[in-house]
Design a protein that fits this description.
The chain is an alpha+beta fold and 558 residues long. It is built from 22 helices and eleven strands. The protein is 52% helix and 13% strand. The strands form three sheets. Strands 3, 4, 5, 6, 7, 8 and 9 form a seven-stranded mixed β-sheet that branches.
């Protein structure tokens, strides 16, 4: 295979540079290199903001900017409970690289642009930017995502929204730990999980006591413990706590209305295998002030839209991780020679690389289609797609990413597991999105719950798949059998993972058949729908156009 990028013989001769290439922060434009992302952007968002995204891609793809991601993880946050005078501060301190990533994300509107931009395709444009930014570093995306996702929930309480939304949607990054009346912009975190409850948030034991009047917008005192609260440097948190009428949602700021520090006390920062740059914490509420958001006793319903938005961002973030892994593997294989040829010229490596690319193609198509649906929630069909498709996509894309990261790492060989390579970070990051915001089983149960509660979501999902009917016989047979199996209700929960797997594959295949080149959709269907049993990456059928698939995904150097 003739690779689009051919390194000089002198560079190939330097074995130290070849072996260490995955550590190199390659200076290429992440937007221009990604033909699939370009096509998805134009398809779902028209020609909007093309120059804006090209410029952002030039920034995020530069060597200096990529280095920020490395530094933010090399120097993780540190935590101080008290200042030097003994005053409680609960302060997480970050490397300047982390702050620069946050500043860029907020200035680009990744935290709020769909809620403020009066232009079509706002969610699509934001998703495209997130895929670019997410390839650089994933950890800072946590507070960005939660700030973005909190808006629909806070809007349910207009009196609070009047004060908070202008600061939430501001494009000024203000990381100072001061009351909000001194700030130009704020970020929002979330605290739902408790030790005894986990995903079963209705088992939460944290209590909320009304200071005066009860109900939405009223002040309460929160007492209890959260095993996970992300991220403690945010200015306020959406928190679930029990009142006499049941689990309710509260907005709990870091500072009280009288200017004193709110008694939300951080016990420790979590020691995580991935997402190292982001501060996750365990906290105690010792009479912390919080304002009820939404209807009392309907806390899950109030916060569910926030959860849906964070799950969507998990899809996008995992797609970004897949893209970075593919780019690194392609670049390395273009300059690494073994057994007399470059790796990119070896047939078996071509098979592996093309298969990894197909995974990303399916993930990107799914994510961008959901972004389009978010832009059209006023359309019944699109709204129903969001309700089912987000759970299906979050489950599938996020669970496929860890093995994808490992397989790309193996393309690098021994250097890929060295800590001066980007791959250990990509690999450790890969399981995070699959576990956070509802692990695999929770997602599958949510899919079943949505199907039982609102059967129309199933009709909408299959109507979308049906737009590709007749384009590929494998998909037609696959969908027919899937529909039959969905009618069999026996052991439905037991079979949930297998059913959701197939829902995701059918949806991805249908999108690629409609929008991707034939050589991409044919290989995807042949490898994902036409074979029985499980197989590793690199088992594509013989008649796939590997060269075309690889060339389409190649990182173009600028």
């Amino acid at each position: 295979m003739n690779a689009p990028y051919s390194p000089s013989p002198d560079y190939l001769a330097d074995t130290h540079e070849v072996n260490n290439v995955s550590r190199e922060l390659v200076n290429y434009n992440m937007y221009l290199q990604d033909v699939a992302l370009q096509e998805a952007l134009h398809r779902e968002g028209g020609t909007l903001a093309e120059q804006e995204l090209i410029e952002f891609g030039s920034l995020t793809g530069s060597a200096d900017y990529l280095e920020l991601g490395h530094l933010a993880n090399k120097y993780p946050p540190e935590f101080d409970t008290h200042d030097r005078f003994g005053h409680r501060v609960d302060l997480a301190k970050f490397h300047p690289a982390y702050h620069q990533l946050m500043k860029t994300a907020i200035e680009q509107g990744l935290h709020a642009s769909p809620w403020t931009d009066n232009r079509a395709g706002a969610h699509v444009i934001r998703a495209a930017k997130n895929i670019l930014q997410g390839q650089v570093e994933a950890g800072h995306g946590c507070p960005i995502t939660m700030t973005f996702a909190a808006v629909p929930s806070i809007r349910l309480q207009p009196d609070l929204a009047k004060t908070w939304l202008p600061l939430i949607t501001s494009r000024i990054y203000d990381p100072r730990n001061v009351p909000i009346d001194q700030k130009q912009g704020v970020t929002i975190g979330m605290g739902m999980t408790e030790k005894q409850g986990g995903s079963d948030v209705r088992a939460n034991t944290t209590k909320a006591y009304a200071v005066g009047a009860e109900g939405g917008g009223q002040l309460y005192k929160i007492v209890g413990h959260k095993f996970f609260l992300s991220a403690p440097m945010c200015d306020a948190f959406l928190v679930l706590a029990q009142t006499q009428r049941g689990l309710s949602c509260f907005l709990v700021p870091r500072w009280q209305s009288n200017g004193q520090k709110n008694p939300l006390q951080v016990l420790r920062l979590k020691r995580k295998m991935g997402n190292v740059s982001n501060a996750s914490s365990e906290v105690e509420f010792r009479g912390a002030e919080g304002w009820m958001v939404g209807e009392e006793g309907r806390g899950v319903r109030t916060i569910i839209e926030m959860v849906s938005m964070t799950r969507f961002d998990c899809m996008v973030g995992s797609s970004a991780g897949q893209r970075m892994a593919v780019s690194q593997a392609l670049h390395h294989c273009s300059i690494r020679a073994a057994f007399g040829k470059r790796l990119i010229e070896q047939p078996l490596m071509q098979n592996v690389l093309a298969d990894l690319i197909l995974e990303y193609e399916g993930s990107l198509a799914f994510s961008m289609r959901m972004a389009y649906a978010l832009d059209h929630r006023d359309d019944t069909h699109e709204d129903l797609l969001v309700r089912l498709g987000t759970a299906v996509g979050k489950y599938w894309i996020c669970k496929r990413t860890p093995n994808h990261a490992y397989e790309a790492m193996e393309c690098i060989g021994g250097s890929g597991v060295m800590e001066d390579s980007i791959f250990p970070r990509l690999y450790r990051e890969a399981p995070i999105n699959a576990i956070w915001e509802g692990s695999g089983n929770v997602q599958c149960l949510d899919v079943l719950r949505a199907m039982y509660k609102t059967p129309a979501v199933v009709h909408a999902f299959f109507a979308e798949i049906g737009k590709a009917q007749g384009k590929n016989s494998l998909l037609d047979s696959f969908v027919s059998q899937l529909q039959q199996d969905l009618q069999q209700l026996a052991d439905f929960e037991y079979r949930a993972r297998g059913l959701v797997d197939r829902l995701a594959l059918a949806f991805q295949a249908a999108l690629l058949l409609r929008h991707a080149p034939d050589y991409v959709s044919h290989a995807f269907c042949a490898s994902r729908l036409g074979q029985q049993g499980q197989h590793n990456y690199g088992c594509l059928p013989r008649d796939c156009d590997l060269e075309a698939i690889i060339n389409r995904a190649w990182p173009q150097m600028v």
